[in-house]
Amino acid sequence: MSTYAxxxxxxxxxxxxxxxxxxxxxxxxxxxxxxxxxxxxxxFQASGRQVRFxxxxxxxxxxxxxxxxxGVRTASAREAAYEQxxxxxxxxxxxxxxAKLEAIESGIATFEQEFYAHxxxxxxxxxxxxxxxxxxxxxxxxxxxxxxxEGGTC
Length: 154
Fold this sequence. Notes:
Blueprint: H1 12-25, E1 30-36, E2 39-46, E3 49-56, H2 63-66, E4 67-68, E5 71-72, H3 75-105, H4 111-115, H5 127-141
């Protein structure tokens, strides 16, 4: 299976704008983004919640950008390969946000269900950042009760 939007020519700026427009159309009242080495973030407020997504960005010095099957890439080829990978990640985030909002709009899920892990707590950390290790440990050690796949009820 190939990576979604691996060959996209849509710029990162255009994807960010599309994400902001989509969020606004579905009722978000605030929107921000930032970048730093190795990551980009979007944040927004909707349904009384603050939400933040962090997108891991590739390392421009990684071998996948500095080399190809015939040897070392030129500086311009390195930059082009890195930009392509960055554009792909922004396109994927645009898809994720649209899918979540459409699931909410269609009644498949609630806002809380779709954005739970990315909801920002008063501490400034997301629900996932605050509880992810605990949940992983519960799963690894055996959760109390029965899982739905093991015959539990809905």
